[in-house]
Amino acid sequence: MEYWYFCENMKEHIFNIQSSADFTKVALAIFKHQFKNNKVYRSFCDLLYIHPSDVKNVEEIPFLPIQFFKSRKVIASLDQVQEIFTSSGTTGSITSKHFVTDIEFYNQSYLKGFAHFYGDIQEYVVLALLPNYLERKGSSLVFMVDDLIKQTNHSESGFYLNNLSELAQKLEELDQKGQKVLLIGVSFALLDLIESKQFNLKNTTVMETGGMKGRRKELIREELHQILKKGFGVDQIHSEYGMTELLSQGYSKGNGIFETPPWMKILTRDTEDALTIQQIGKTGGINVIDLANYNSCSFIATQDLGKVHQNNTFEIIGRFDNSDIRGCNLMVL
Questions:
Q1: Are 109 and 248 part of one and the same domain?
Q2: Residue closest to 200 by CA, chosen among 178, 222, 172, 227
Q3: HSE (CB half, 13 Å, CA atoms) of 73?
Q4: Whole domain around residue 247: which residue ranges?
Q5: What CATH number is attached to the domain comprising 15?
Q6: How far apart are CA 7 and CA 121, in angstroms?
Q7: Whether residues 269 and 247 fall in one domain
Q8: Residue 241, H or E segment
Q9: How far apart are CA 3 and CA 26, in angstroms?
Q10: Which of 215, 230, 252 is at the close of a domain?
Q11: How far from each other are the two terminal CA atoms of the chain, in whole angstroms?
Q12: What share of the chain is helix, strand, coil (3-state, %, to 5)?
């Protein structure tokens, strides 16, 4: 297949991956594109003495440390920037910026990703409890959920901020009518909701997106989910794994075990040697391949710690402290 044709039809190739061979073919083509067109990523690869001609499989592709999104414009396109997504942060801290030149990559990624795991969005009412994200500009999560709300074509879908009693009443009404509901919220806000009222939900998917952000004492996932399951009266708490620097999401339908859509893949790296990819089943730093990040960087070394399982599911175990990141002198260019 001609390289130019591959690039011209990249959305079609990315969102129609059917096999691991398809994934590898597209990933290697995107690596070649980003090596050529992303100056920050090219500099990183050059310092590692890695060239596309040397790379034959995805494990050999360099993963750009996610910190670069805080200090550099990580972009692989000369097109006009359509959206700038920014991370949350404490006052005075440096936040990540993700420059998106083709928002359709994001639109297709989250819509096709949701359909892959949960089916037709129009079957749901989406109720969103994301106060800390709504209180700032540039949230990719708010952008996604806002569009999901619109895609439901349901007048009762919407955002909630501090009106918890109104949300509780709406949630109970919809659930008792047999309406499929997706309640998506940050952890501290979901805890606030069940402290105001106890539920016994039968038709609602409760999805947490993480995040205490100084609002509450941090809880381990098992403890958080146990409290939420009891408070909402549900068997499982679902989770979303995404971040500002990505255009795709992983989802967990319970027990903190995440799956990815076909155009996303998780690997782990050795905690002592950031350039070494580990075997499946070992705990390490999470590396993400997000092929929807075509015009940015699709190969990112995150600051999360986790484990990949044999069936390609994964779990997040914790976070690196800066002092824990060892074995790579190229974290800062």
A1: yes
A2: 172
A3: 10
A4: 104-252
A5: 2.30.38.10
A6: 30
A7: no
A8: strand 238-241
A9: 11
A10: 252
A11: 35
A12: 35, 20, 45
Three-state SS at 184: strand
One domain for residues 120 and 65: no
Task: Please check whether residue 241 lies inside any domain of the structure.
Answer: yes
pLDDT in tens, the chain (333 residues): 444 445 568 899 999 999 999 999 999 999 999 999 999 999 999 999 999 999 999 999 999 999 999 999 999 999 999 999 998 765 457 889 999 999 999 999 999 999 999 999 999 999 999 886 767 788 999 999 999 999 999 999 999 988 899 999 999 999 999 999 999 999 999 999 999 899 999 999 999 998 655 565 677 889 999 999 999 999 999 999 999 999 999 999 999 999 999 999 999 999 888 888 999 999 999 999 999 999 999 999 999 999 999 898 999 998 876 544 433 444 443
Total domains in the chain come to 2
Residue with tokens 């995404």: 242
| The residue count for the chain | 333
Hey, what amino acid is at 98?
H
